[in-house]
């Protein structure tokens, strides 16, 4: 007579639980991978272009040395920001701007309030860059005198911050961006009103 072995309901329950656990993990992994693939395809199809900036106006009201290495500055600045994307909006966060001369920072950072830029939209950003007793290299006075003799003043404007892309209701993580502008203006009339293009890196 052959021996019949039977497992209790307890053993059957343990077997079912062990079978269901791997299936649940596979299902969650499939959903996660599908979501990543969907986001990648949306990104690939839309492929956001980086924003464009141009320097519309830069006016120097004050630029003088009180000591060989201390500078007072007052600059009015207007930038134009363009979003070239027709399907992607842009959130700008932590946007800071400062002016430079001869590769030296001549103003403290000025903060631009966070803002949203819709698809194909253009915004005008105006700010005042004011520095009091800003530390600079002692050689800056000599360079200023030399440029005054030439009759031209080359001033740089640099902006940096973080942006987020918006596609429909989806918003990306933050991406660091840097804006660099250079303007060449007459020394005796230290103001420039132009549409000079700036470079933007992401």
UniProtKB/TrEMBL annotation:
InterPro entries per UniProt: LEA_2, NDR1-like
Pfam families to which the protein is assigned, alphabetical: LEA_2 (PF03168)
Transmembrane segments: 28-46
Keyword terms: Membrane, Transmembrane, Transmembrane helix
GO biological process terms on file: defense response to other organism
GO CC list: plasma membrane; plasmodesma
Main location per the UniProt record: membrane
Domain Late embryogenesis abundant protein LEA-2 subgroup: 78-181
Membrane topology: Single-pass membrane protein
Subcellular locations according to the entry: Membrane
Name of the featured protein: Late embryogenesis abundant protein LEA-2 subgroup domain-containing protein
């Amino acid at each position: 007579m052959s021996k019949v072995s039977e497992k209790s309901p307890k053993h059957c329950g343990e077997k079912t639980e062990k079978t269901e656990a791997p299936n649940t993990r596979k299902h969650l992994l499939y959903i996660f991978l599908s979501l990543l693939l969907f986001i990648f395809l949306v990104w690939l199809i839309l492929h956001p272009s980086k924003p464009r900036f141009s320097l519309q106006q830069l006016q120097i009201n004050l630029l003088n040395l009180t000591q060989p290495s201390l500078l007072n500055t007052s600059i009015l600045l207007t930038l134009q920001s363009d979003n070239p994307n027709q399907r992607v909006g842009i959130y700008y966060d932590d946007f800071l701007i400062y002016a430079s001369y001869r590769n030296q920072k001549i103003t403290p950072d000025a903060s631009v309030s966070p803002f949203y830029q819709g698809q194909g939209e253009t915004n005008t950003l105006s700010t005042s860059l004011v520095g009091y007793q800003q530390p600079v290299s002692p050689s800056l006075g000599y360079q200023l005198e030399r440029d005054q003799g030439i009759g031209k003043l080359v001033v740089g404007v640099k902006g940096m911050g973080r942006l987020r892309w918006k596609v429909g209701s989806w918003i990306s993580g933050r991406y660091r961006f840097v804006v660099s502008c250079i303007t060449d203006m007459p020394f005796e009339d230290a103001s420039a009103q132009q549409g000079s293009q700036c470079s933007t890196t992401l």
